[in-house]
């Protein structure tokens, strides 16, 4: 149940009032939206997604060009350098220490049984793999294979797929998503239809490492994964970026990767198991991991290089409470050079996320036109989102501006080019009191906020707002809606499917001069309204009572 209902009132002046946390606040201020520049959106998106930027992979010439462009645009928008304690790049950036590991010379994945028969699977089209360890050679031999269901260890839910089995030095075969992903509603041990973090591939690999596995292979299945094998292939067959660690990744598995579902079925069959039956069993509480009596092997070389990537940070200082901060975030990076399609090997990332990066500059321009708000506003373009939210994670763990003084924020990731919509899609609706700001803004703009139609895809855990949310900062994340003015929901669903199948994380995500920007600009007005309202009130929104992030926010605010 929502604790705070904030109604829009006319010209409510809150400046000068005592700071209050959510439940005692009475309303939101009106804000007007200045003219917002479609030209800025187009020009920056076009430039960032051009071949000259080489797909904006961290640590490349494409990064250098991106950083230079965004500093230029932030300066022109009237922002100040957001990291004044740094002498690098004039204080406009924050170094993010990364490790690039590029695999090469991949052997087939081999699986052998007691009968001496060996199955062999080819890299790229049947499996992909990489390593989180900083070692030049990965050579996994005669590793016992264990099917561990969904690979979840959740003590608070009484669920442990690793109970009673020792997987140290072994290869684990893991299902993607949560056990209850096929539910029609949101009731179930893992949120029913809505994916939890336990369903994300990042968690699967983290838990396998904690269990001591040598290798972890996720079974790719398009529906629960929420994307096709083409996305896995593009994302995993190039260099991988990781956060630098003190142990050089020694605590991680030697190899992480994915196998096509039909390949997993062959592996299970070789171990005397039926994959479909095993998948059904894994959905039940009390599932027991299944040793398959098989040995797995794979090898590949790694080229390792440590490098600094950069977050780009600009700030508009608040007029009355400059030590309170509202955050706008978007990731500037993409995949760089990836699996070629029709001879094109550059994943340009026009929609994902040159559009969101351009929006930071367009919003900064609009905020400057509107005058300095009461609170300061941070414009943060983060690196390495595509590698696991690494840039936002680094900032959240090493904030330039204290998280306890960060009121909340808005994340932008991939604007829709399908034209204006009657609604908007809210990722994680009902989690925080920021919903009230969004609801008020949407009402003014004549839009209807809707829950995400595909919570099973786990979008809440797939973009940069999550890095801040898990450390307590309330973040709102929404997208252009699926109920289009032209064509309704059928057209919206068809457009989303087309983008996911044909452009998402592939070379075809390129700038199109014929795009309809009217929906983008309508969405941008919403982003402006929400952030501006948050910057013009002295309210401190929180997560709703009982939310997973509420306790850490309460602790953070108490120690402010």
Can you tag this structure with a few keywords?
two-stranded parallel sheet; 2 domains; 560 residues; Glucose Oxidase, domain 1; disordered N terminus; 17-stranded mixed sheet; globular; 14 helices; alpha/beta
Structural notes for this entry:
This protein has 560 residues and is of the alpha/beta class. The protein folds into 2 domains: 14-97 and 309-558, Zn peptidases (Aminopeptidase), CATH 3.40.630.10; 101-304, Glucose Oxidase, domain 1, CATH 3.50.30. It has 14 helices and 25 strands. The protein has helices at residues 38-48, 61-76, 201-210, 222-225, 229-236, 261-270, 275-282, 350-370, 390-397, 434-445, 465-469, 488-502, 518-535, 550-558; strands at residues 7-8, 20-21, 27-28, 80-81, 93-104, 109-112, 118-121, 127-130, 137-147, 153-154, 159-160, 171-175, 215-220, 240-243, 255-260, 290-316, 321-331, 336-341, 344-347, 375-382, 406-411, 423-427, 448-451, 475-480, 539-540. The strands form 5 sheets. It has a 17-stranded mixed sheet that branches. Strands 1-3 form a two-stranded parallel ribbon. It has a two-stranded parallel sheet with strand order 2-25. A hairpin with a 4-residue loop joins strand 10 (153-154) and strand 11. Helix 1 (38-48) packs antiparallel against helix 8 (350-370) and helix 8 (350-370) crosses helix 13 (518-535). It is globular and about 75 Å long. The protein starts with 6 loop residues before the first strand and ends with a helix. The model is unreliable at 1-26 (pLDDT under 50).
């Amino acid at each position: 149940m929502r604790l705070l209902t904030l109604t829009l009132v006319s010209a409510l002046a809150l400046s000068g009032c005592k700071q209050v946390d959510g439940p005692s606040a009475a309303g939101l201020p009106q804000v007007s939206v200045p003219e917002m520049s479609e030209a800025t959106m187009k020009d920056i998106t076009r430039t960032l997604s051009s071949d000259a930027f080489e797909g904006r992979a961290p640590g490349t010439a494409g990064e250098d060009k991106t950083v230079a462009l965004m500093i230029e645009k932030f300066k022109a928008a009237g922002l100040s350098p957001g990291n004044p304690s740094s002498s690098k790049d004039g204080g406009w950036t924050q170094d993010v220490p990364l490790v690039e590991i590029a695999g090469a010379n991949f052997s087939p994945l081999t699986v052998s049984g007691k009968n001496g028969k060996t199955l062999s699977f080819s890299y790229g089209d049947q499996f992909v793999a990489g390593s989180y360890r900083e070692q030049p050679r990965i050579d996994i031999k005669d590793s016992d294979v264990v099917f561990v269901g969904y690979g979840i260890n959740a003590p608070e839910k009484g669920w442990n797929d690793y109970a009673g089995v020792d997987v140290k030095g072994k290869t684990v075969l893991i299902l993607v998503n949560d056990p209850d992903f096929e539910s029609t509603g949101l009731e179930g041990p893992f949120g029913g239809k809505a994916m939890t973090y336990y369903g994300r591939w990042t968690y699967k690999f983290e838990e396998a490492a904690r269990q001591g596995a040598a290798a972890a292979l996720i079974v790719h299945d398009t529906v629960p994964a929420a994307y096709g094998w083409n996305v896995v292939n593009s994302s995993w067959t190039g260099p991988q970026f990781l956060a630098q660690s003190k142990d050089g990744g020694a605590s991680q598995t030697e190899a992480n990767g994915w196998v096509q579902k039909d390949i997993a079925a062959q592996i299970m069959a070789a171990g005397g198991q039926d994959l479909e039956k095993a998948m059904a069993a894994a959905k039940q509480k009390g599932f027991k991991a299944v040793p398959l009596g098989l040995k797995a092997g794979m090898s590949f070389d790694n080229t390792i290089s440590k490098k600094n990537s950069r977050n780009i940070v600009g700030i508009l200082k608040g007029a009355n409470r400059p030590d309170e901060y509202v955050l706008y975030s978007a990731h500037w990076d993409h995949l760089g050079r990836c699996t070629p399609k029709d001879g094109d090997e550059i994943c340009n990332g026009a929609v994902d996320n040159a559009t969101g990066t351009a929006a930071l500059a367009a919003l900064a321009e609009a905020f400057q036109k509107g005058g300095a708000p009461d609170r300061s506003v941070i414009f943060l373009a983060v690196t390495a989102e595509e590698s696991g939210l690494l840039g936002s994670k680094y900032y959240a763990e090493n904030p330039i501006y204290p998280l306890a003084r960060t009121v909340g924020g808005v994340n932008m990731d991939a604007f829709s080019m399908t034209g204006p919509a009657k609604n908007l899609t809210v990722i994680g609706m009902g989690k925080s009191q920021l919903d009230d700001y969004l609801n008020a803004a949407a009402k003014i703009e004549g839009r209807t906020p809707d829950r995400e139609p595909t919570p099973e895809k786990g979008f809440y855990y797939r973009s940069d707002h999550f890095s801040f949310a898990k450390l307590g900062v309330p973040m709102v994340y929404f997208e252009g809606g699926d109920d289009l003015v032209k064509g309704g929901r059928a057209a919206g669903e068809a457009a989303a499917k087309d983008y996911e199948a044909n452009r998402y994380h592939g070379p075809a995500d390129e700038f199109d001069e014929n795009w309809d920007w009217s929906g983008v600009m309508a969405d941008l007005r919403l982003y402006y309204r929400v952030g501006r309202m948050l910057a013009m009130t002295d309210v401190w929104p929180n997560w709703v009572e009982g939310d997973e992030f509420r306790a850490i926010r309460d602790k953070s605010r108490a120690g402010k």
